[in-house]
Design brief:
Alkaline Phosphatase, subunit A, 9-stranded mixed beta sheet, alpha/beta, globular
């Protein structure tokens, strides 16, 4: 079945920076192995929000449960890639994030996967708002030659900044990018990318200036950073400025300690912000053309470390929206101890590039192979294959 969108499809990407503990978000609450392996961080089964006889949501993810029950959340289980934890690899945040951003698990790449998508949509770099990042820095996934990206720290101030302040904000983003990606990526490549991106900052500010004033909403977002970022996405999207890719991050998921107190707060912030965002779009008759992709750079290990969990594999992704056929996709990794990867990890059951390929082809109507670097089996999380409006 194919359906025709009335407006061009839009992708909102949310990165959960630090490595969300998938096992403590969608919990095998009946499994004694998890309770034994995680005495410090496991959630009592009676406190969870059951999804079925085996899995339950963390109690702080009630907003996700409600969206899932309404059929708007596709949970992709056991997401990862082949080399995590293998001989000669590492578990660094930089490398894991770099793999997700570039679709290259065997080498360092100079081009992000979303940059390639932006080039498909805007081959002549005519609209500096084709891709907009909300937050500090410039996402590696959106970095590429001849690709303009607008990065906004504060939408209310961005369009009102004098040229000197815009230049200062741009320079701050450049400094963050340079610290992250040189010398891993050659100075020349970083310089070329940033030079091209910088040319559009004044035009972007002029185009974004009217957006806050045009927006009104009955939805009351929380005051935390992810809620503010998604409110900004709603304001720009409903302004009709031609943005096809939005990107933002929710920070703080590196729970080597104090997971029991930190994770509930973050899950409440995240899930309520996404729920409010979807309701806001619906109120503006602007949800039909939006898909949200939530990802994190890796999972966590099966055993806790006394007060938290360490970097591991077998995480998860979430595809969310009114066009989504909610449910469980992929296979939850085996928890039998003989199946643990390298004696401490869940083995992933689906490659993250399968998730990207699904969103690219079934939602954005873009050929996935040149973007993800190969052909990967797709899942089917949409109510119908989208025929994209142009």
């Amino acid at each position: 079945m194919t359906t025709k969108l009335q407006k061009p499809p839009v992708l909102v990407v949310i990165q959960l920076a630090g490595g969300l503990d998938f096992m403590n978000t969608l919990i095998p609450y009946q499994n004694g192995i998890i309770r034994d392996a995680r005495p410090a961080v496991s959630v009592p089964g009676e406190d969870t929000l059951p999804l079925n006889d085996e899995l339950a949501w963390h109690p702080s993810a009630r907003a996700f449960k409600d969206l899932y029950d309404a059929g708007n959340v596709a949970v992709v289980q056991g997401v990862g890639w082949e080399h995590l934890g293998g001989p000669g690899s590492d578990r660094s945040h930089f490398r894991a994030t770099d793999i997700w951003h570039t679709c290259e698990s065997d080498k360092i790449s100079t081009e992000g996967w979303l940059a390639k998508v932006v080039r498909e949509f805007d081959p002549h770099s005519e609209n500096p708002l084709t891709a907009v990042n909300f937050g500090l820095g410039l996402p590696r996934s959106l970095a590429g030659p001849d690709v303009n990206v607008t990065s906004v720290g504060d939408l209310d101030k961005f369009g009102l900044m004098p040229e000197v302040e815009l230049e200062e904000e741009r320079n701050q983003d450049i400094d963050i990018f340079k610290r992250l990606y040189t010398p891993k990526v050659s100075t020349g490549n970083v310089h070329d990318y940033l030079t091209r991106t910088g040319r559009s900052v004044l035009q972007s500010a002029d185009m974004l200036e009217p957006a806050p004033a045009q927006y009104s909403s009955d939805v009351e977002y929380a005051s935390n950073p992810i809620a503010k970022a998604l409110r900004d996405v709603a304001r720009v999207h409903t302004a009709g400025l031609g943005t096809r890719i939005f990107y933002t991050q929710h920070l703080g998921y590196d729970h080597h300690s104090m997971e029991g107190t930190q994770l509930p707060k973050l899950l409440t912030e995240l899930t309520e912000a996404i729920s409010d965002f979807l309701q806001d779009l619906r109120n503006h008759d602007a949800s039909d053309e939006v898909t949200i992709l939530v990802f994190t750079e890796f999972g966590r290990r099966i055993r806790d470390n006394g007060s938290g969990t360490d970097h591991g594999s077998g995480g998860g992704c979430y595809i969310i929206g009114d066009r989504v056929s909610g449910g469980l996709y992929g296979e939850y990794p085996s928890l039998k101890q003989e199946d643990w990867l390298y004696g401490e990890d869940m083995q992933h059951t689906i490659d993250f590039r399968s998730v990207y390929s699904t969103v690219l082809e079934q939602w954005l109507s873009v050929d996935a192979i040149p973007i993800v670097g190969g052909s990967y089996e797709q899942i089917n999380p949409y109510t119908a294959t989208v025929e994209a409006a142009r």
